[in-house]
């Protein structure tokens, strides 16, 4: 509703207002300063002579300058200079076994992959006396404190099958007949 009202006022007498604006006398632009025109000055012989004249004092100073040039490092040539240099991380190969295709091949020291985490949690769950926190920390290059936290707070799922006699079957209920 409000759009219709504003449109009426906006379009009221629009042709007369447009004609009035078009017929107004245009303001004259401000005059330009005479030195702003470089084309006329470029043709003068005094300026050309000043540009092409050699200055002996500047030439003697230029002869004292010695520039030594070297090739940039390879990472600059390859476009690797966008990022700041950072500390090189030590990598280790993962211990995957038969799940090799599911995971990454190299992991930074002090970190483990998902498949490795599930494997070590399962090993600890099945054989806690063999796979202790100290052995896991040494095997996977982890800190003992982090391994203890991992074993305390992450527990792999267990699949439990219930015996058939405990399952409740709905056999006593007869289906209703539609009439």
From TrEMBL:
It holds the Pfam family UPF0240. InterPro entries: NDUFAF4. GO terms for biological process: mitochondrial respiratory chain complex I assembly. GO terms for cellular component: mitochondrion. Residues 16-43 are annotated as: Disordered. Belongs to the NDUFAF4 family. Binds calmodulin. Interacts with NDUFAF3. This is NADH dehydrogenase [ubiquinone] 1 alpha subcomplex assembly factor 4. It comes from Ptilorrhoa leucosticta.
């Amino acid at each position: 509703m409000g759009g219709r009202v504003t449109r009426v006022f906006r379009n009221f007498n629009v042709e007369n207002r447009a004609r009035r604006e078009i017929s107004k006398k245009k303001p004259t632009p401000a005059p330009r300063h005479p030195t702003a025109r470089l084309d006329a000055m470029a043709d003068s012989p005094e300026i050309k002579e000043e540009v092409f004249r050699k200055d002996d004092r500047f030439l003697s100073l230029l002869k004292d300058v010695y520039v030594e040039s070297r090739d940039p490092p390879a990472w600059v040539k390859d476009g690797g200079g966008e990022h700041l240099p950072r500390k090189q991380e030590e990598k280790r190969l993962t211990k995957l076994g038969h799940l090799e295709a599911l995971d990454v091949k190299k992991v930074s020291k002090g970190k483990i992959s998902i498949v490795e985490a599930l494997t070590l949690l399962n090993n600890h769950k099945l054989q806690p006396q063999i796979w202790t926190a100290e052995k896991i920390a040494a095997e996977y290059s982890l800190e003992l404190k982090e391994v203890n936290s991992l074993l305390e707070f992450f527990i792999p799922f267990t699949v439990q099958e219930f015996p058939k006699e405990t399952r409740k079957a709905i056999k006593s209920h007869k289906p209703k007949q539609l009439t």
